[in-house]
Amino acid sequence: MDLLPVVLSGGSGTRLWPLSREKYPKQLLPLAGENSMLQATIARLDGLAGLQEPLLVCNEEHRFVVAEQTRLLGKHGTILLEPLGRNTAPALTLAALWASRDGADPVLVVMPADHVILDAPGFRRAVGQAAELAASGLAVTFGIAPDAPETGYGYIQRGAPLAGADGGSAFALDRFVEKPDRATAQGYLDSGDFLWNSGIFVLRASLWLDALERCRPDILAACRSALGGAKPDGDFVRIDPAAFAACPADSIDYAVMERLTQGLPGLPRGAVIPLAAGWSDVGAWDSLWKVLAKDAAGNACRGDVILEGSTNTLAFAENRLVACVGLSNLIVVETDDAVLVAHHDATQDVKKIVDRLKAAGRSVAQWHRKVHRPWGWYDGVDAGDRFQVKRILVNPGAALSLQMHHHRAEHWIVVRGTARVTRGDETLLVSENQSTFIPLGTRHRLENPGKVPLEMIEVQSGSYLGEDDIVRFEDTYGRS
User: Fold this and answer.
1) Integer Cα distance of 53 and 61 in angstroms
2) Which of 79, 248, 375, 417 has the fewest Cβ atoms surrounding its Cβ within 10 A?
3) Per the confidence metrics, is the pTM higher than 0.70?
4) What's the angle, vertex CA 5, arms to CA 226 and CA 279, rounded to 5?
């Protein structure tokens, strides 16, 4: 059968601030390994028979990073660009419509991009079993065998074993349960009939669309309209913004899966497969600590960290030495512009800090100091009254837009590589240890014609230095 990975990459991961931020969220970060969580999700199915190139659904702002991370895996996936978030049911609907547009009907393996699964071979075996059930007309999800009375997850109650299921390891889907209080969660754990809701689904594209037609025809109609006005742009598919804005927001669970447990006529059967593969949704810092490798005292560290007399501590150092003395059950995260210290029991409340930062209009809630762009990145290293200093890296063969600023001039100093600079009517090459000046109001463009990254220092001076003081005339990436 054709097996199509559908990777949903629309989350913002606010509870993992300050590493995860709205403009560069957790799924794009290497939190639990060398690859980003998005890359780990895409690669997780490698080796399964009938596997197609991935289909990704992501926020339009993240499109170039998602495309680059996919390319680095040697994949050539299609990326559906959501102009705004509408939860997982519309995202899956766009994917199912796109996957079946030429009459195909693949089995979709629907995976959030921000989960950790430590046992990839075990996961693939479970997906193989789920795919067989999905090919026979079932909507399959995975339930995580609980090891604690967790109150932060929804639960699935499994029913009777499915006839013919491999080893009796697939069960009827009896009901979904919202996040319980601790006493109820303990009862679920003791009963052995309840599993954590993984949010991972395996089903045919046609089954999802038929079930949605019965359960939420308004979502299906809006997504059809949005995709009907879509504009393919290389590997990207741009969804019609106005049509998608009219789509109701809902989750896969609420829109369809919960209704499969109610015995409504015309709906397919649901199945759940218990999964014990080291799964975590990494919803907060304490969840990440649980899945990371630890020393004998229960500490997990990354970066330049020194621990003394500390236990069960997670310490992340991005730029500076972090020294922890006598800590217990704490989270310490250092970045170039923010430091978080939190108790394990309070990590869900990190979102409240992000909400307060947003309410105060502070960019640190959304942006890292290093900002990724389709051509590379820039890092704002210093700023003051009427000046700003940035480090800039331009990838080989990449180019910034032909642009102009009303309120600032720019000095460029090349520290590595060679820059091709358009300045007004002239074009010049600027090599290492050379510099050039871009006067206020002058059309200009920066390109890297070489085969090594171009690294520069940019000094801006002027009355206003905001990123919105850019007038683009031409742009390789469709931003003009």
Assistant:
1) 22
2) 248
3) yes
4) 115
Classify 346 as helix, strand or coil.
helix
- Residue-by-residue pLDDT tens, the chain, 480 positions: 899 999 999 888 899 999 999 999 999 999 998 999 999 999 999 999 999 999 999 998 899 999 999 999 999 999 999 999 999 999 999 999 999 999 999 999 999 999 999 999 999 999 999 999 999 999 999 999 898 888 888 999 999 998 765 555 899 999 998 888 999 999 999 998 999 999 999 999 999 999 999 999 999 999 999 999 888 888 899 999 999 999 999 999 999 999 998 877 788 899 999 999 999 999 899 999 999 999 999 999 999 999 999 999 999 999 999 999 999 999 999 999 999 999 999 999 999 999 999 999 999 999 999 999 999 999 999 999 999 999 999 999 999 999 999 999 999 999 999 999 999 999 999 999 999 999 999 999 999 999 999 999 999 999 999 888 999 999 988 776
Spatial distance between the Cα atoms of 220 and 211, rounded to a whole number of angstroms: 10
| CATH numbers and ranges of domains, the chain | 3-280 (3.90.550.10), 293-358 (no CATH), 370-474 (2.60.120.10)
